Amino acid sequence: MRFSRRLFVAGALAAPFLTGRAAFATEDNQGPVRNNISAFRTHEWQYHFDSLGVGVIISDTTAKVLQHWTSDGQMFLYPTSVPLSDELTRRGYTEVVEKRENPSWAPTPSMRERNPEWPAFVPGGDPTNPLGTRALYLSWQYYRIHGTHDTRKIGRRSSNGCIGLYNEHIEEVFDRTPVGTKVKLI
């Protein structure tokens, strides 16, 4: 196996959780949270959902991390990019309503207002496409969990509302995530 910085970061983020070295704490009456050596907290799905159903995703916009649980209880952890500001950040419950490989992209009306120089449309597969290689469309209009070709964005406030992952990570999540997967952004 070839190691890359991205794989190292993802592994470093997941290692304390997987090795059981997490400490428990309680915060904001949301139940126990796990804090690891990277100082971000992981969340137990049971404090946010009644059941796993076909799977659940929790995206923590403060910690810039996405947790994905499959229907059989396996948990996967990924670093993310998050919206640039609180005004662009939507929080709450939604679900995956559609999945697209090599999605095309068009800026939202508010993006066009802020950035009139942006193209009106970028086809799927184009290396300048901000949705990367895969996208999970949420029930909220214009909101996605998607890949990115611009790897500098991961771990930062850099999006216009979406949650971004490295392309290889969104491809893993995409393959394991059926339509109907429940999602919570916190």
From TrEMBL:
| Superkingdom of the source species | Bacteria
PROSITE patterns of this UniProt entry? LD_TPASE
InterPro entries in UniProt: LD-transpeptidase, LD_TPept_cat_dom, Transpep_catalytic_dom
Does the keyword section mention Protein biosynthesis? no
Give residue ranges for domain L,D-TPase catalytic: 55-186
Task: Tell me yes or no: is Transferase among this UniProt entry's keywords.
Answer: yes
Which keywords appear in this protein's UniProt record, sorted alphabetically? Answer: Cell shape, Cell wall biogenesis/degradation, Glycosyltransferase, Hydrolase, Peptidoglycan synthesis, Signal, Transferase
Q: Where is the active site?
A: 146 (proton donor/acceptor), 162 (nucleophile)
Pathway, per record: Cell wall biogenesis; peptidoglycan biosynthesis
Q: Where is the signal peptide?
A: 1-25
The transmembrane segments are none
Question: What family does the database annotate?
Answer: Belongs to the YkuD family.
The identity of this protein, by name, is L,D-transpeptidase
Q: Which organism is it from?
A: Albidovulum sediminis
Give the lineage: Bacteria, Pseudomonadati, Pseudomonadota, Alphaproteobacteria, Rhodobacterales
